[in-house]
Amino acid sequence: MLLIRCPWCGPRDEIEFRYGGQAGLTYPADAEALSDEAWADYLFMRDNPKGPFHERWMHTAGCRRWFNAVRDTSTYRFLATYRIGEAPPG
Amino acid sequence: MSGRRLPEGGNRIDRTRPIRFTFDGNEYEGFDGDTLASALLASGVDVVCVSPILGRPRGVMSAGEEEPSAFVEVREPWFEPVVAATMVELVDGLVARGRPGVGVLPTDPPPTKPAIHRHSHVETLVIGSGPAGSAAAVDAADRGVRVLLIDRGPDVLEDDAIRSLRRTTALGLYDDGFAVLHQRGPEHDTLWHVRAGRVILATGAHERPIAFADNDRPGVMLAGAVARYVRDFGVLPGERIVMFTTNDSTNEHMGMLMDAPASVVSVDAREGGFVVGVDGSPAITAVRLARPGGQTRTVEPIDLVAVSGGWNPAIQLARAMGVGLRFDERLATYVPDGTGPDWLEIVGAAAGEGLPDAIPLWSVPADDLSRHFVDLQRDQTVKDVLDAVKGGLRSVEHVKRATYIGTAIDQGRTSGTLTAEIVNTALGWELGAQGPTNARPPYVPVPFSVLAGLDRGPLLLDPVRTTPMHEAHVERNAVFENVGQWKRPRFLPLEGEDLDEAVTRECLAVRESAGALDASTLGKIEVVGPDAGVFLDRMYTNRMSNLPVGSIRYGLMLGLDGMVFDDGVAMRLAEDRYLITTTTGGAAPVVDRFEEWLQTEWPDLRVYCTSVTEQWAVVAVAGPDARDVVEEIGTDVDLSATSFPWMTWREGTVAGVPCRICRVSFTGELSYELHVSAWHGLHVWNAVLDEGAVPYGTEAMHLLRAEKGYIIVGQETDGTVTPDDLGMGWIVNPSKGDFVGKRSLVRVDTIRSDRKQLVGLLPQDGDLLMAEGTQVVAEADPGPPPVPVLGHVTSSYRSPTLGRTFALALLTGGRKLRGATVYTPGRTGPISLRVVDPIFYDEEDKRRDG
Fold first, then answer.
1. Contact check, Cβ <8 Å, B176/A2
2. Contact call for residues B408 and B101 (beta carbons, < 8 A)
């Protein structure tokens, strides 16, 4: 079980959290202006890197806040967690 | 074999405390400190069990958790279906019997040992209290670190600065220093959940055997185990011993065994000596020896072959955490390669330190390898491994799955390295080309009763949620159904009624007089703030911002993919305050998604969401007499249709308690939903029933709503259904601005005209009830497969109001099929179904105002 550092609550067990997929995908300001292809790209396509990955987590059984994380997908290790609005470290 | 207790020695046993036990129906005596295995050896018991597949006699081979041979079922004092005799500590009254390596659970289960769960956070966890583990623990404690030291055996280092647990086995290591430990106690077991900043693995090493003919016979043992039985238990397993070795670890045993006294013949593979096989059954009587190219000679009488093929670091726990292996040619085995998580350190023999150099010898060459056993518990031989390789398998992981080697209780602790190197050799690959298969937690078998801990019986892991009216339902003999975690009355039968009779009565009550439904499980969320209306406009397909205070509006929510996600109503309580309802199952997902959008996309919106599902009890009173019922229980709200119209709410008192009354209906009848504090739920429910409303359950509710063509999210929808598919395009307001899912509604795929659409179906035989999920086809005789399927039935009921059966279905291009006949294959031929609009009752909505 991963030990995840919530930027608000500190280190907590993984079962308190929910995974939220890739971070940094912004809902389009004008979704209707997008082509089907561009919309499908936003809707369905996600990066799947081996190594550091920017992703979203939510502390569902804690403060219920969403936050961002950088995690190495090959080791599961969290390299950083940070609050919404903060720049990723490094 | 002629095992016996020596008159002296045995540093683990207490000869002043004899212990009586029963094995296979016979009574024996051992000493406090014995294991069942040592006591059986001391009593001269050779055969502990027979093997599970071949039925061959098996005795004790090891002195620990690596035991692949001697398995027993323990009946008393606590039941264990199958466990290695080497792992059973002797206690008074122990009753056990031999059990082939597969346990059998009794149909009438005996009581299991109680177990509790505990949690602990430590700076350093040391697993194994041998020399290396104890030294590491002391070293850490000297530096002021909080240490937890565990050992699977009865001995553990005791030190004031160290917390230590004996009889405690690490079942598994997990990410970030999380460990699960099983502590065995006399009265109860404890399952520890430990989070450690650092884990030091000092689990030692396991001796490996060498395969030769009939090497599974009782009397063939690991050399180190033989020495342990003499030293720790004062038990000499055999008098006339052949010591077959590849390494120096056996040197120190020779003198001790000769002093015992026993005669010992050394057969050293480094000098070209081999044991090619043993004779005798069940126990061995003679040994056949050979030198390469030389004659075989038989040595007898012999009652014990002590084997040492070298030593394997016990690092199964670490491998599950990604620690890699490298082949060490001097040790002829695999050692950790230094990779792995930074919180994990491996020390001592587990790291390969202090192990004796050995020559690689996995199997003694022979023409017939069908009795050279590799995995005793799975009854698999060198021939079985070679057959798998001949069959085309190259990876040991595949060989494992073909032969099941390494999948038994011992997880291949004695067979893993042998199998890997036999495969490598057979393929002509170099030693160490591929290592042994991976072992996974639990490291040793753990009873489910320990994993369950105190969560037994009705205290299940998943909570049961009941409404404030639950006890009234129980008193009425309600038959409950699980809706998520909720218990909801499915129907409430009177004496002697079955499901159909009860549902018919309940439905007719709603259609003809008045019924009452406990709707408390509806999800309820308060959405509050100056931007609440703007926010809800983005979440629902229709506009909520222009909803007047005092009014209610039905709404659909979509996923970003345009598919129906949830439905419910929104009530505007004040300019800046809405109460929305969700489906019972949607309560948590909806509040989750609200928070997600508010936090991650629109943090500028001033909106708060609060789940109030459990704060409100809801009684839905439905039927032509609903107004009378609510008036009779007493209310200060004017219930007339003109002053309290459809889709509005009013606040007042009902039955003497504060109430929010909502004019919404899921049945088509005049309805009042009474929202009261959860504390008053039972009171209002009883009041309504006292005035003659008939309680109805979810089954009647489903039937009544289906007659009206109202959908249930999750029944008519399955995540692939758009509002238009449901014929609910009217609720999508494209002119109000963007909302979640809007863009997807104009994707090429979502505007196809041949999508599945919601229709009604009337079986030609009005008495025939289709099963939900029934596949529907276009032709009475669809011909040979593959048969194109039009769609499927989503809801199907027998309507007492219509006097016939009816169904809802999703059919390809369904709306164009109106009036057509479609079919479903029946047991006695095709069943004809007429396609109709999905509304069967009161199409003009004349009944909702009473």
1. yes
2. yes
What values do phi and psi take at B632, rounded to 5?
-65, -35
- Tell me the pLDDT tens digit for each residue of B466-512: 999 999 999 999 999 999 999 999 999 999 999 999 999 999 999 99
Q: Quick check: B782 pLDDT over 90?
A: no
Residue of B nearest to A3 (CA): B176
pLDDT digits (tens, 9 = 90+) for B187-227: 899 999 999 999 999 999 999 999 999 999 999 999 999 99
Beta-carbon contacts below 8 Å between A and B? 53
* AA letter at B21: F
Tell me the CA distances in angstroms from A63 to A12, A81, A88, B608, one per residue in order.
11, 15, 21, 14
Q: What is the ipTM of this complex?
A: 0.97
Q: Which two three-digit tokens encode residue A29?
A: 């300001």
Which residue in chain A is spatially nearest to B339 when comparing CA positions? A75
**Residue B743 phi, psi (nearest 5):** -60, -35
Report which of B698, B667, B658 is spatially closest to residue B467, judged by C-alpha positions.
B698
Please report, rounded to a whole number, the percentage of residues in chain B having pLDDT higher than 90: 92
Instruction: Determine contact, residues B162/B169, Cβ cutoff 8 Å.
Output: no
Tokens found for residue B433: 């080309």
Asked if residues B809 and B758 have their Cβ atoms less than 8 Å apart, the reply is yes
CA B819 – CA B835 distance, rounded (Å): 5
Contacts of B601 in chain A (CB under 8 A): 26-27
Phi, psi of B102 (to 5 degrees): -125, 125
Contact between chains at B174 and A1 (C-beta distance less than 8 A): yes
A2 touches chain B (CB under 8 A): yes
* Contact (Cβ atoms closer than 8 angstroms) between residue B642 and residue B537: no
Q: Which residue in B95, B100, B104, B2 sits closest to B49, CA to CA? A: B100
pLDDT band (50, 70, 90) for residue B186: confident
Examine the pLDDT at B430 and tell me if it is beyond 80: yes
| pLDDT tens, position by position, B695-731 | 999 999 999 999 999 999 999 999 999 999 999 999 9
C-alpha B585/C-alpha B647 separation (Å) is 23
pLDDT tens by residue, B795-829: 999 999 999 999 999 999 999 999 999 999 888 88
Q: Where are the alpha helices (DSSP H) in B72-116?
A: none
Query: What span, in angstroms and rounded, lies between the C-alpha atoms of B386 and B367?
Result: 13
Residue-wise pLDDT for B249-268, tens only, equals: 999 999 999 999 999 999 99
What pairing do the DSSP bridges indicate for beta strands A10-13 and A3-6?
A: antiparallel
- A-chain CB neighbours of B745 within 8 Å are none
Please classify residue B338 by burial: count the beta carbons closer than 10 Å to its beta carbon, then call 0-12 exposed, 13-18 middle and 19+ buried: exposed
For residue B340, list chain A residues with Cβ-Cβ distance below 8 A.
none
Report the Cα B271 to chain-centroid distance in Å. 52
Chain B environment of A56 (Cβ under 8 Å): 600
**What pLDDT, on a 0 to 100 scale, did the predictor assign at position B1?**
59
Return all residues near B338 (Cβ < 8 A) that are at least 6 apart: B324
Closest CA to B777 of B764, B762, B792, B766: B792
Residues of chain B neighbouring A13 (CB-CB closer than 8 A): 178, 195
How distant, in Å, are the alpha carbons of A5, B474, B570, B606 from that of A83?
11, 48, 32, 19
pLDDT band at B460 (very low <50, low <70, confident <90, very high): low
B742 vs A31, A58, A64: nearest CB:
A31
| Closest Cβ–Cβ partner in A2, A14, A36 for B748 | A36
User: SS3 for B99?
Assistant: coil
pLDDT for residue B369 = 98
Over its C-alpha atoms, chain A yields an Rg (Å, rounded) of 15
Interface test with A, best of B740, B742, B743 (most A CBs within 10 A): B743
Between CA B592 and CA A64 the distance in angstroms is 9
